[in-house]
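User: My collaborator and I are trying to settle a disagreement about how two of our proteins should look. Neither of us wants to argue from intuition anymore, so we agreed to look at predicted structures for both before our next call. Could you fold the first one, then the second, and keep them clearly separated?

Assistant: That sounds like a sensible way to settle it. I'll keep them separate. The first protein:
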Amino acid sequence: MSDPQTLTSPARLTPPVRLMLALLGGAGLLIIIVQTFNLSLFGLFPLLANRYYYTIIGLFLAAAFLITPARRGRQNEPPVGLWDMALVALSLTACGYLAFHAETIITSGWEVVAPPVATVVSGILVLLSLEAVRRAAGLLLMVICALFAAYPLVADVMPAFLWGPSFTLGETVAAHAMGMESIIGIPLQVVADTLVGFIIFGSVLAGMGGGQFFMDFSLALMGRTRGGAAKVAILSSGLFGSLSGSVISNVLTTGRLTIPAMQRAGYPAQYAAAAEACASTGGTLMPPVMGTVAFIMASFLDVPYTSIMVAAVVPALLYYAALLMQVDLYAARNGLAGQPDARTQLLAGVLAKGWHHLASLGMLVVLLFTFSPSRSAYYATAFMLVLAFIRYRKLPKPADALALLQDVTGNISHLVATLCGIGMVVGALAITGVGSAFSRELIQYGGQNVPLLLILGAITSFVLGMGMTVSACYIFLATLLAPALVELGLDPIGSHLFVLYWGMLSYITPPVALAAITAAQISGASGMQTGFKSMRLGATLFVLPFIFVYQPALLLNGTVVEVVFTIGTAALALGLISCALEAYLYGVGRIGLTTRAVIFVAGALLLIPDHYSEMAGLILLIATVGVLLLPVRRPMVSGSSDLRDKIRLDG
């Protein structure tokens, strides 16, 4: 599993390479802005849709080959060589040819029957896409994309529902390169049409000190409270991650500050790393931005992005509430105090210094409900720059602007490189018809058994999440599994969020646990042990998808009474499970194994969407707490014991 990041050694980005990146990225961004706002600017004008996509692919695929070396993991990455430059030239030439003939591709149906030159160019673009996804996301994802890309060649000899019409090699590469369902399909269209503005917004926010502001804001808000260091880590990582949408870069950015602070406050190295890993993983699930997947989800479901954003709010808040509660319970059980006053600032002082960051974030949310997402982020970025000028009374330096351009170019090129390959997975399933057939057969073999399909879907999402990026995992299962869940009557957004949540779990679950291992490298703890600790801290992430897929009220889909009751019940249930996991119950104190088991069962019963189960869980909770709070009486006979001691069994 890979994460969008463009960490490249300075030795690779020599001045000539930086100049080429600036030209490629600057031209690409200018074309995107002209297309987004339907402008006529500097001789540019809006392009035909497929011509626009080929232009964006050509520019940013070329940038990806400059930024990402052929082999990763070396201490000293090699400078850009002849092979890299050849790939850059091929990217620009192949996409330039397809862009030039864009109208003919549509009117003459070249995706079905193409002339020889167009077929050869299509084959080159397919190979370039596979090499780009290998560099950006790893060999495993490249192999998966290659196998699916070649699937139409053998579809006619596959058994049962895997059967599809036969395609020749020329027809296959033409369909991938010139059809609208493969390389330039929905994933790439989402990036080119919508996501670039949010990438710019996030880069500008980070470049203007937004990450440090969120850290200071969290510290001022919770630094002095019990277990304040861990609460600061969770809050700041959640805030920053909701804008960056990148798990690993979130760990590397905020974790370098929060993990040592947690260790100084008394949290063990494993616990500190696990808390940061869980908090960073949840950032991708927290509105307003949520990363690439949320925008792709909106396109798949053909709903406004704000519908996804609104639906995702409550589950994300419940997840972070459970995380905050667990670190608080741990601090209470182990006597960990808040951070000294010297390490914290007054909230008013923090807001006075960084009010423009919060104002920009608030403006982004308002604009998302007012304008289209494709334009909202640009308006919010302009608003942020105006506020920054008011706040600092100075314009950005040219060097800062170039660094920002390089950062944005790197992020976009990584996404383009990854999604061109992933697009061929979707394209192969679409052109053979296997995608829709698979969903129908899945329902038939599952006997319309919703719990069975959900369990199979959860396992599949988790396994695929180990080897794919989250975007790839979601796109694959949104094509195959989610339609089956929707056809069985489950909420469409809930079904797609179910796939996303379970795909995210591999970040904190061994054997991969990439977020946990990255955080462990900072804390000095064992990667695998941190992974298992992350599983326990992030236990809410395992159960939340099953709750909201059965109870759409958690997605704010229902009456006010249903929504309030469902959220309240879920919050109480997750709180009880957190108390059981941390062996501490509010109002009671430390609890032993027996009480933990009883409290856990009460929480689990409250999660079941059935009034009898909820009532049983509530009665069990009241009875248990009532017994625990009974006044202790001195035994009259030697050897007798109080009922509370039998249940509580403090150790």
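The second protein, kept apart from the first:
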Amino acid sequence: MAAPKRGRNASAQSKPGRSLALILIAIVALTGGMFWSGHTTPRLGIDLAGGTSITLRAEAEPGQGSAINKTNMDTAVDIMNRRVNGLGVSEAEVQTQGNSNIIVNIPKGTNSKEARDQVGTTAKLYFRPVLTTEVSGAPGTASPSPSPSGSASGGDKATDKATDKATDKSGSSASPSGSPTSQGRAVSDALKADATPSGSASGSPSASPSASGGASDASSKLQAQYAALDCTDKKVRAAVAKGTRPTDPIVACGQNSGGQWQKYVLGPAEVDGTDVDKAQAVLNTTTGAGWTVTMDFTGKGAKKFGDITGKLAQNQPPQNQFAIVLDGDVVSDPSVSQALTSGSAEISGNFNQESAQSLANMLSYGALPLTFKEDSVTTVTAALGGEQLHAGLIAGAIGLALVVIYLLIFYRGLSVIAIPSLLVSAVLTYVIMALLGPTINFALNLPAVCGAIVAIGITADSFIVYFERVRDEIREGRTLRPAVERAWPRARRTILVSDFVSFLAAAVLFIVTVGKVQGFAFTLGLTTVLDVVVVFLFTKPLMTILARRKFFANGHKWSGLDPKALGAKPPLRRTRRPSSPAAGPVDPKEA
């Protein structure tokens, strides 16, 4: 059984070029991806590159039961931080200042407008039935006829993910004309026809006269709001939803597929954002819907969503639609033709990847407990961070130079293996950091630079462990090629245990800390993994190849593997001299 085993080992030893070719292909592919992406340098954190600082002031919403206190402020900070720094490595900073302010620092290179929208958006989501809608124009003028889509989404559909059946949409609009009189009739008729889809007492025939009078006043007020509503005015859009409650009918605005602003009368909210368990952006290639947002509802939310879609499916357009209202704006208004009771749904419409992910992100991380107003936006310089980076790079260069000098003095010819291994590790680290910037918003900060410097020692330590194992085998009297292979299993075990401990420490540090320390932990963990890759796919195969060269195999005094300098023992096995027939028996002790 021993002979086949040696045969397999010999075969493995004879093809170290495969491993070297594999890591070379990986380096070429990653480098090509870096240049193809256009991001040839790592994205720097705010301490190294500067950025934008946003000051947000908290405001309690009247009638919403929210208060500006430590609990709500801490909750808001946590939600904002997860929105802009979901993986903990984008270097965005969110912190409180005083009792009612939150400071958000966004590094240069981040889409500051998108980040500003995400941190300041309350993300209060409601599903409201559409009562009537039309294209918005300036007040006092006739609005153009509704577009064929008649909606903010231009043909959005609600899909039951369980059955994957998309509903149809007729595309007609219920508003008969653009005149104020006809608008008032449309609103009044819609409010009467609505009859509170949730089935509350206010919609029953037995409602008291006083209640009917109150409803009439509310209807008149809503008619006036709808007639005067000009969704093309940004200030009007910002003020339209203030002070409203989920239980009230409201007017709202949204953009249709043609870029026109649409105005709506919407019924009371039937489902809210807390009923959404999970949301994610998905590229739907099966139906050709493009980017969509899928939602999974909670048990309670699934029942409410099934009830409202079942009621809406019995109505004519546009009252078979429900509007998805995010912070007062209609982001989608899909229609339904049947009850969606599976507990999950898909929103399709005018989404691109960015808008779909932004909506899914805000839905997943929840609504802010307070409303925030943007007080100031300032630019942060990186003068101090630049000086610290310069000093850090000098320290790293000095450390690397000392490691190289150490290798040249103590390991001599073996530094031909160690130095290229360090260079390969450095190239992989740089390229991967550059690629992680656009993919997971990784930003290199000063602690991350420290982590990369510490990794130089970790990588060099792995080489030293292997070299010393090879030297131990030579001291035992073995020649170089067998010594290289016999030393590898023991060195491999030691290297894996050591790197596992380093990676575990980095993982724990990443989990239990926040802010810049996570950058240090992330970089340390990344370089530890790369150390294993480099040792297995580059250092060991290169050592195997060089062991066949006479300079190393014969133990040249500058090879670092000179048996005499290492104090090698005599060979483990000697070749006996052939004895002559006349020589007599050989004493075993003399043999």
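Some points you might bring to the call about the second protein. Confidence is low (pLDDT under 50) at residues 1-12, 140-154, 162-186, 195-214. The longest strand covers residues 125-135.
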